[in-house]
């Protein structure tokens, strides 16, 4: 079976978040299931540079205002199709944001072009797998313009990002008039890219079973719960995984000292290096906690700051790494200034430092208000840092809470709390400190975390079964 994956980013070529990690890791995971994957992504400068001597697969004299080519090649171990369209994608930096940190005004046209290219390329494949709103129009162009029935799976990585634009955009998309209706792109009087992806897909997946249930409720559906309930028969949740060869504490060059589940002792050198990098004092007896990710309301960094007194009262420490909302960045800097040696803040995206953090922290805080799957807690488990997580979405599906039953059975891998509010997080941090003081019990939980299966093996099998069912059908 040959599958065309369509996405706006793909690790290691271009990455702003977990979407890229998933798109980059799935091809190798599916290869073990006998499924060949070619990934179609925009021809950003870094992508074209990596492709080198690619061959032309298709050309357009005018694709939304300029010439474009579809290039076929191989880079970073991936079979790729890259949409070379300089007027749309030849821009430095973040693939979605301009120099002032705002969305490029022509983002809907840029990703409509991606949809056109994917629909045209689909004729060579058995199945199309489209990811998130940027690939939301693939089905519309495939079904309405080309009249093709190629099976289409659409995966939601985060329902909060919907690609919603004014109705005036529709006339520029080249779709038939009937597409702008409730049975199509129309979404509260505007054009909805994610809505279109959900409408035209044969199957809808999201990245954890719990999140698949949450988005069909009024509380979690963000305006799309009615559509998702109406299509409940084709909605499912398949957990994300990690590329465990890439994320491997035994071989990770970013660590001060590699370690493994069989020999975790060298991990202490990473803890010392982490304290140095964040300006944290030696000798604290409480847990050294790490927050790494977007500084945003969704991710709950404000809850961490509000609950900070509970951690510091236990002689704990906090390292914060991330970038995002300016007001939250300022709060993080202020916390570090107010509590020198106890709180350290680095504003920015630094994957090497993040990996050192996973390999050196006692615990990783993931207090998201909602979380489709989350990769931070998977990385934390892989690197032996029991995560403290809100009981939502994929966090609930991947962490075994250290309650009395789990501790008695010897299977706990972290701490869960609910609801996602500061008071509940503070209680979880106090519980974490109690667990941390029990050296034998803590080491058992750390070893459980290191032994947790966070690979793609099981989930790749579920994707493969879904794909085969569609192709047979």
Automatic annotation (TrEMBL):
It catalyses: [(1->4)-alpha-D-glucosyl](n) + ADP-alpha-D-glucose = [(1->4)-alpha-D-glucosyl](n+1) + ADP + H(+). Residues 4-229 form the Starch synthase catalytic domain. Belongs to the glycosyltransferase 1 family. Bacterial/plant glycogen synthase subfamily. GO terms for molecular function: alpha-1,4-glucan glucosyltransferase (ADP-glucose donor) activity. Its EC number is 2.4.1.21. Keywords: Glycogen biosynthesis, Glycosyltransferase, Transferase. The lineage of its organism: Bacteria, Pseudomonadati, Pseudomonadota, Alphaproteobacteria, Acetobacterales. Pathway: Glycan biosynthesis; glycogen biosynthesis. Pfam families: Glyco_transf_5, Glycos_transf_1. ADP-alpha-D-glucose binds at residue 15. This is Glycogen synthase. Residues 287-432 form the Glycosyl transferase family domain. Synthesizes alpha-1,4-glucan chains using ADP-glucose.
């Amino acid at each position: 079976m040959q599958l065309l994956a369509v996405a706006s980013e793909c690790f290691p070529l271009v990455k702003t978040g977990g979407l890229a990690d998933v798109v980059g890791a799935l091809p190798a995971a599916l290869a073990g299931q006998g499924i060949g994957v070619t990934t179609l992504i925009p021809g950003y400068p870094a992508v074209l540079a990596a492709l080198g001597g690619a061959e032309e697969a298709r050309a357009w004299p005018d694709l939304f205002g300029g010439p474009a080519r579809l290039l076929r090649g191989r880079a970073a171990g991936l079979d790729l199709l890259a949409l070379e369209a300089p007027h749309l994608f030849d821009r430095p930096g973040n693939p979605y944001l301009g120099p002032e940190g705002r969305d490029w005004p022509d983002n809907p046209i840029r990703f409509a072009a991606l949809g056109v290219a994917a629909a045209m390329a689909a004729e060579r494949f058995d199945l199309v797998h489209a990811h998130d709103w940027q690939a939301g129009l693939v089905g519309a162009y495939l079904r309405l313009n080309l009249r093709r029935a190629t099976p289409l799976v659409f995966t939601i990585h985060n329902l909060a990002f919907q690609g919603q634009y004014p109705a005036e955009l529709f006339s520029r998309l080249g779709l038939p008039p009937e597409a702008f209706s409730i049975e199509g792109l129309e979404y509260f009087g505007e054009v909805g890219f994610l809505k279109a992806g959900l409408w035209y897909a044969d199957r809808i997946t999201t990245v954890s079973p719990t999140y698949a249930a949450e988005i069909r409720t009024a509380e979690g559906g963000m305006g799309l719960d009615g559509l998702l309930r109406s299509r409940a028969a084709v909605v499912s949740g398949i957990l994300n995984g990690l590329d465990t060869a890439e994320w491997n504490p035994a071989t990770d060059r970013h660590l001060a000292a590699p370690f493994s589940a069989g020999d975790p002792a060298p991990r202490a050198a990473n803890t010392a290096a982490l304290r140095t990098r964040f300006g944290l004092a030696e000798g604290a007896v409480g847990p050294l906690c790490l927050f790494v990710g977007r500084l945003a309301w969704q991710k709950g960094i404000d809850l961490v700051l509000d609950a900070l007194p509970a951690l510091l009262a236990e002689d704990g420490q906090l390292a914060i790494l991330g970038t995002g909302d300016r007001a939250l960045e300022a709060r993080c800097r202020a916390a570090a200034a107010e509590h020198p040696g106890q709180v350290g803040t680095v504003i920015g995206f630094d994957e090497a430092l993040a990996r050192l953090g996973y390999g050196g922290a006692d615990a990783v805080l993931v207090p998201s208000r909602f979380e489709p799957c989350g990769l931070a807690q998977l990385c934390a488990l892989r690197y032996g840092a029991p995560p403290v997580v809100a009981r939502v979405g994929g966090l609930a599906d991947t962490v075994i809470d250290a309650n009395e039953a789990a501790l008695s059975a010897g299977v706990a891998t972290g701490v869960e709390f609910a609801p996602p509010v500061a008071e509940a997080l503070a209680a979880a941090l106090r519980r974490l400190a109690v667990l941390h003081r029990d050296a034998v019990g803590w080491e058992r939980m750390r070893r459980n975390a290191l032994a947790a299966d966070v690979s793609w093996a099981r989930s790749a099998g579920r994707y493969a079964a879904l794909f085969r069912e569609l192709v047979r059908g």
